[in-house]
């Protein structure tokens, strides 16, 4: 499915113009995409947004700064630590959401955890394509993507780096902005995760490296639930099982 909900904008606290899309009517559900991706690619193109809208959700999907239709400044000052969380919390405030659900994939899942740690109180949350290790130690993922973005065109076909570069080129990302986005990552301790009271679904592809600690993340969360779906980190997001798992959790 390739519908394109109308792009809307809001102004971040530092004045940047950030984009989001909406589809459906009903209970608000904020979904945050992963690194190198966009709301269109992550949630709309594969039908997840339409599926969730069909279940009665107003699906709200921001483009993170440095991504998609949002501002992509090249000034490092525009990318302080945890600014993606700042932006997402501000979007919730901008839209006046008080009773809503929250979810994210990969970097989006980590951002959802940061929101919860910093005081967001959705009814339910979904952390997809992310495990405890990637939340506690963000440096591994940032080093991988920094290596990809600073050595484009040098990777052997079929390697994880080659696949990440192919996705970057497919999504039309801004290399310089994305490198700065990597500087915004903030580690979250397992003690902080263990204080999150929001019922949370942790879902990952069976071949995703993050799946190795996804179950552990669900176990540490006081009200966590783990589900696996087919695929690796890049392919799981394209499977209908992901949207189905999210929908079943949010409507149960």
Written account of the structure:
The chain is of the alpha/beta class. Helix 10 links the parallel strand 7 (200-205) and strand 8 (224-229). The model has no long low-confidence stretch (mean pLDDT 96). Helix 2 (48-54) packs parallel to helix 11 and helix 3 crosses helix 4 (107-117). It has an 8-stranded mixed beta sheet with strand order 1-2-4-3-5-6-7-8, sandwiched between helices. The protein is globular. It is 39% helix and 18% strand. The chain contains 11 helices and 8 strands.
Task: Give a nutshell description of this structure.
By secondary structure, this protein is of the alpha/beta class. The protein contains eleven helices and eight strands. The protein has an eight-stranded mixed beta sheet, sandwiched between helices.
């Amino acid at each position: 499915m390739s519908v394109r909900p109308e792009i809307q904008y809001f102004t971040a606290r530092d004045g940047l113009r950030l984009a989001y899309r909406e589809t459906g009517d009903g209970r608000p559900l904020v979904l945050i995409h992963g690194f190198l991706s966009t709301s269109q690619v992550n949630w709309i193109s594969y039908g997840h947004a339409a599926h969730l809208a069909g279940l009665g959700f107003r699906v709200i999907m921001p483009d993170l700064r440095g991504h998609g239709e949002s501002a992509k400044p090249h000034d490092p000052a525009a990318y302080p630590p945890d600014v993606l969380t700042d932006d997402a919390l501000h979007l919730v405030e901008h839209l006046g959401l008080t009773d809503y659900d929250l979810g994210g994939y990969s970097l989006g899942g980590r951002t959802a955890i940061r929101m919860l740690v910093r005081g967001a109180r959705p009814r339910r949350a979904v952390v997809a394509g992310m495990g405890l290790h990637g939340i506690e130690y963000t440096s591994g993922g940032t080093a991988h993507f920094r290596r990809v973005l600073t050595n484009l065109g040098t990777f052997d076909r079929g390697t994880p780096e080659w696949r990440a570069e192919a996705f970057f080129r497919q999504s039309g990302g801004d290399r310089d902005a994305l490198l700065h986005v990597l500087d915004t990552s903030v580690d979250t301790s397992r003690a902080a995760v263990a204080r999150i009271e929001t019922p949370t679904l942790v879902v990952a592809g069976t071949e995703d490296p993050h799946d190795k600690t996804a179950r552990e993340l669900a176990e540490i969360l006081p009200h966590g639930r783990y589900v696996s779906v087919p695929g690796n980190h890049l392919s799981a997001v394209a499977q209908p099982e992901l949207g189905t798992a999210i929908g079943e959790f949010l409507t149960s």
